Each structure stands twice: as C-alpha cells, then as structure tokens.
C-alpha cells in the first residue's frame, strides 16, 4: 500500500490486490467476472432494486396498518361523526335555501272576489321555477301576504299552500279561499298600489320542510312577486252617452264606461257611485253596477242623474271650465267615486282608495246631443210626432214634404216641438225658462247639422 502526496491511503492497483483483505483493498470481485459484470455486482451489492424497494415499502405499510389500524378507525369515526351532522344539518339546508332564493316566482293568475269589510275570497296562482332537474317535495306551507315596507308582521292576510312535489316550473297557490283581512291598514296600502301604480309588488313569506329524496331540510320562501296592475285605469272612457227622459229613480243620463285592466288580476268591486264634475262644479252623479274587472278592457252600462237646473244656472262657469276642450268639439266629464258597495254592504277600502282617483273622460259634444235628442224623442212618442215630417230630419227633403221651407224654419219648428215635448219639459223642469230655451234652440241647431 502506498500513500498519496496528501497522505491519503491509496488502493492497491494490481489485480491481486482485488482479492486482498484490508481497508485499502479495492472492490471484491469474483473470479472470472469481467469489468461490466463486476459493475453490476457492485451496484446490486450497494442497494435494493426498484422492485425490491416497492415491495419493501408495501410490507412496511402493511406492518404499520396491522399495528395502528384501530387508531385509524377511531380517527375516521371521529371525522364522520363531525362531518356528517355538519353536512346534513348545515350544508344540505344551506344548499336547499340557496336554490329557493335563486328561484323565480311569477304571478300567473289572481282574483279578489266577494269583497266584504273584513274579508275577501282569494285566488292566487304563481309559477315557481327551482331551476333544478330533481323533484323536490314540500310540506304544506302558510304564506304571509304583506308589503315589504311594512314587514311580514303586518301581513294583510295569509294563504296556505298544500303539500306537493315541485319539479322544474310548477304552479302553486290557493283557489277561491276565504281570506280574513288581518291588517286593514296594510290592505288599504296594497289596494292603493294596485289601483294607482303601473306595477305592484306582493310579498310572500313562509317556512316549510322540503325533501330531496330522503334528505329533509327546512326552507323559507321569502319572495317579492311583481306584476302589472291597474295604472289609474289609464284609457278610461265614456261612450254612447246621452240624455234620456227622467226615470222614476231620477236617471236622465245613460252611456257606457270602459275601464281598462292590463293586469292578470280579476277584481270584483261591486256597485260604484261617482260624482260627475265639470271643473270643480259637481253637476250630478253616475252609477256603475256590479263591476267586476277582468284582464283586458271592461265596459259597463252607466246611468246617471245630471242636475240640469244647476248646469243651466251655472252655464257661464261650466262653459268657462270647458272652453279649451269645446274648441275640439268635446267636453270633459270628471268622475270621482263616493261609495262602493258589494251585495248591499259598503266596502270601505275600495271607497277610500277610489275616492282619491279622478277618472276623466272626453265626450264628443255632437254625439252627446245627437244621442240625447233621439233618446228623448223615442222615450214616449214616435219621432214623426216631434219633427215636422220624417223627411226633414237632418235637412233632407222628399217629394212628399214641404220643400218650400228652408233649414231655418225646420230648426225653429224642431225647437218649438222640443220645448213643448213632455220629456224635454220634465228634463229641464228645474232650469230657468230663458236659459232652458237657449239650450234647446242650440240642441235643435246642432241636430240640424248632424
């Protein structure tokens, strides 16, 4: 054995040294092995192969598991004991509530019928879309019906939804259910929003149990349902109006009133009595009987009592308030509800709300006068008994009539006949005679032009 220059021992380099004993010998080779074989032997002797290592690792894990399996089992039991209650009591209800919160609730049909001072008959159908493919079963749920600004504690009523299975888009609600009015202040506010606004909101809230398969969770439905409503009866009109001979109940005005309803709501109102006004002067009243508003345009017979004596005595004031519109050939009639009754019982909430609404209709003067004259003529006598002859109506002459008379004589004769007609005298019985004759002369001239 020699030494290196830095005093480190040097291995023997001769072939014989490979088979020598001692700390300085080289790798021990078997006889007959070449260098590559010797290298394999050295690598194998220096460590385990990959396969052997993997087998050794599995053996170690197996021995470890056999030794500590009870600890792992206990740890899993503890984990599941903590996780499963959290999953079923927290995660599942939270997911169910999130599904409900993200769902859409749309009003598809509603009806308020049989309005009494303290109750209504309610139909309320809404479409609920849970946006999940799995069916969800719910138990019966009592929904508070309220206004968001007043809170569920001030609900105006409640509706109980029966238990059912919801899958996708499902309709749920109540039909023809007697519903006591629990908070009249909230109810009046809701009715006001339905009458005056273009779109109204009904808030609903209730809690129930839902089942997704066998998984049970408690969910709360707390939704605002928005829908179009009456919008102050925009488009209200009075048509086919005219004076008639005074009836036993005092009626001397008839026509048709149209009340638009752009909502999905059917509303049974009852009999509405309205003041009829020209400007700020009340000139009579009108009645709409048995009003039930269904979606779309609703037309009802209108009967009224005009105080013609008051109109004649205040003719200057009436004409002044109508001056601008009369230039277009129309006059304005304003109507304001003074009472609403259903089945003979006063409905205070409808009366209160409708009393705040003024309905304005533009009535063509020519149509009003034409209808009035024909109504009065036909009320008690044949038209030929009032006019000089049938051929002179509208200024049309025939070979059998007196063609020598001009339009002025026809107007004068018609005016005289109208003044003498019993229906006309009764209609204007409270009017000043001079002003009455002036109005009749105007009506005769208007009829001649029509």
From TrEMBL:
Stretches for region Disordered? 394-415
Q: Among the entry's GO cellular component annotations, what is one?
A: fungal-type vacuole membrane
Q: Which UniProt keywords apply?
A: Membrane, Transmembrane, Transmembrane helix
| Stated name of the protein | Uncharacterized protein
Q: Where are the transmembrane segments?
A: 68-92
Give a yes or no for keyword Nucleotidyltransferase in this entry. Answer: no
